[in-house]
Specification:
Helix Hairpins, about 70% helix, alpha+beta, about 600 residues, Beta-Lactamase
Length: about 600
């Protein structure tokens, strides 16, 4: 069955199912029809059997009435009382019997036997001549007992044919029985007119047997008075039941028989028919049903063939699409798995790098904190140095003030020189200012330049006057100037020290603030790196899960391919080849290639 395609797998079970159903329907129809036909045949045979029984009984009763009518004729009594040797009355009676027999062919002989059994009148003169005596016959004894009686069927000595005798008692006027009228009936007439015409179908027939099973009437004359059915099982069953239906086999033929016994006579009429003949109509119906079934199967097969083909074609397209989709999914899963593995490796490496960076930042944070502490100490020391420098500056100021007092004392000592010097200084300043202003004024300042020149000339004269006293106070002035210069130089040095200390203090403060901010930033960076480490580890875990999911997706794609192969195997050989082709060379579409490139670029 594995090499059958879907069409065959669909058609063959459907055809088998239809054939089974039609066969079962045909069998049931045949069985029911046969049963009905046999039942109807049995009912018909039973009705015909009843009709034959009635006809036979009616015919025998009529014959009994005839003998009774004859037995009531008084001439018979006269024949009894006739003297010996007188044959006139007896001849008249014999003549009457002969005439009646001639008109009634069913009688073989009509006779009158007196009480001692001698036949004294008969349609057959030989019986009289031969002095036939019936005193020992049962039917005669019964007739002498006062009631009409029938004999069993026996062979006639005159003709050798089966006959049955009926005897009716003859009563004298006194009521005594003086003899009996005996009518010998030809069974052949009964068979010919009441049994042989009965036909059931083509080969069915009727026959009659006596109470011992001896066949006394039959269409086959070779069996009459020769075949005893009591030797057969079915014959024994018929004799035992005396009425009913039986199925049996006789001489190699299966038969069905309906039988009944005559009410007043010890005979059983049997109607039989071959069972095969009753099956002719069911067999014909069976043949017709089989022909209809074959036509139905053929038409249904064609319809199912076209239906299956209309189903298989789109299913093949779906399989091809599923195959391509499954392989695209498998390829994408492989790419995702590869990208996820790469991402997981990169995330792991990145997590390691972040851990190293975090360790370096922690070390840097520690050093930064240490630097911040040192800067704070330096700031403290700078503040202390600034305070000392301020104290030195104050001391220099006091020293400058003392030197100024010394200079004042020196000026008081030489007031004249101071006055001259001041005049000369003032004049020199005025001349200098005038020269500056004249220079600024350009052409317009030439007048000022002349004035300035005059003033400068005056200043020179004053200077020459002062020069005479300059030597007097030169030594004191030199010493004062030297002290002032030294104090100014010291003041400038101290001022520069104060400014440098102030700048160092500011720088230390800035460094301290920057170190503190840097430490805080490093703490924040450490926190961010910690979060980044957590996220990176989470991403690595998710990447591993994504890789596992991609592998599971790839496994599912493989299972999907296996299912598609199974579906292809179900569809058929052609689809299997197409499926193998699809599985062997999956089609890579532009979208799938582009998606692969996008995945690679994303990771």
């Amino acid at each position: 069955m594995k090499n059958f395609n879907l069409r065959n797998k669909f058609l063959i079970p459907a055809i088998i199912l239809i054939m089974t159903g039609m066969g079962l329907s045909t069998f049931i129809s045949y069985t029911n029809t046969k049963s009905v036909m046999i039942t109807q045949a049995q009912q018909q045979m039973s009705r015909m059997n009843q009709l034959v029984l009635k006809n036979i009984e009616f015919w025998l009763v009529e014959r009994r009435l005839e003998t009774n009518n004859w037995s009531e004729e008084q001439i018979l009594c006269q024949a009894v009382d006739a003297p010996a040797g007188s044959r006139d009355i007896r001849q008249v009676i014999s003549g009457e019997f002969s005439a009646y027999k001639k008109n009634s062919e069913y009688y073989e002989e009509i006779s009158f036997a007196i009480k001692n059994g001698d036949i004294v009148a008969s349609s057959n003169q030989k019986h009289i001549t031969d002095k036939i005596n019936v005193a020992e016959e049962e039917y005669f004894k019964k007739a002498l007992a006062g009631a009409p009686a029938f004999s069993d069927v026996f062979k006639s000595k005159a003709s050798g044919n089966p006959v049955v005798a009926i005897a009716s008692p003859v009563h004298a006027r006194s009521g005594d029985i003086v003899g009996a009228v005996i009518g010998v009936l030809a069974v052949e007439y009964l068979t010919k007119n009441l049994i042989d015409p009965v036909k059931t179908g083509q080969a069915g027939y009727a026959y009659m047997m006596n109470a011992e099973g001896l066949v006394v009437a039959h269409p086959d004359k070779s069996k009459v008075m020769h075949q005893n059915l009591s030797a057969f099982a079915f014959g024994k069953e018929i004799l035992q039941k005396q009425q009913g239906t039986i199925a049996y086999a006789f001489e190699g033929v299966d038969k069905i028989a309906v039988f009944n016994m005559l009410k007043e006579f010890p005979y059983i009429v049997v109607m039989t028919v071959p069972e095969a003949e009753l099956s002719l109509a069911p067999n014909s119906i069976r043949s017709i049903n089989m022909l209809i079934a074959l036509l139905t199967v053929a038409i249904t097969s064609m319809v199912l063939f076209f239906i299956a083909r209309s189903i298989i074609t789109p299913v093949n397209g779906i399989i091809n699409g599923l195959s391509e989709a499954s392989h695209e999914v498998a390829n994408a899963a492989i790419q995702v798995a590869s990208a996820s593995q790469s991402l997981a490796a990169g995330s792991t490496q990145q997590a390691s790098s972040i851990e190293e960076t975090s360790a370096s930042l922690e070390e840097l944070s520690s050093r930064t904190k240490q630097n911040a502490g040192n800067a704070m100490q330096a700031n403290t020391m700078a503040q202390e140095a600034y305070a000392g420098a301020q104290k030195g500056s104050e001391a220099i100021a006091r020293m400058t003030s003392a030197i100024s007092h010394i200079k004042s004392s020196s000026d008081e000592t030489s007031r004249i020189l101071k006055t001259i010097d001041e005049i000369a200084f003032q004049t020199n300043l005025l001349a200098l200012n005038a020269a500056v202003e004249a220079a600024r004024a350009g052409e317009a300042g030439r007048g000022f330049a002349v004035v300035a020149e005059e003033v400068r000339s005056l200043a020179r004269r004053s200077a020459e006057a002062a020069k005479t006293t300059e030597e007097l106070i030169e030594k004191a002035r030199t010493n004062a100037d030297t002290g002032v210069a030294v104090s100014l130089e010291a003041a400038e040095i101290l001022l520069k020290i104060v400014e440098d200390i102030q700048r160092v203090k500011q720088l230390n403060s800035d460094v301290s603030v920057a170190s503190k901010e840097q430490a805080e930033s490093i703490v924040q960076i450490n926190h961010a790196i910690s979060q980044m480490t957590t996220i990176t580890q989470s991403n690595a875990a998710h990447s591993e899960e994504s890789a596992a999911a991609s592998q599971e997706l790839s496994s599912q794609a493989k299972e999907m391919n296996e299912m598609i192969r199974g579906l292809v195997a179900i569809i058929g050989v052609t689809s299997i080849e197409a499926g193998k082709k699809v599985c062997a060379n999956p089609v890579r579409t532009k979208d799938s290639t582009r998606s692969g490139r996008m995945l690679k670029s994303a990771f």
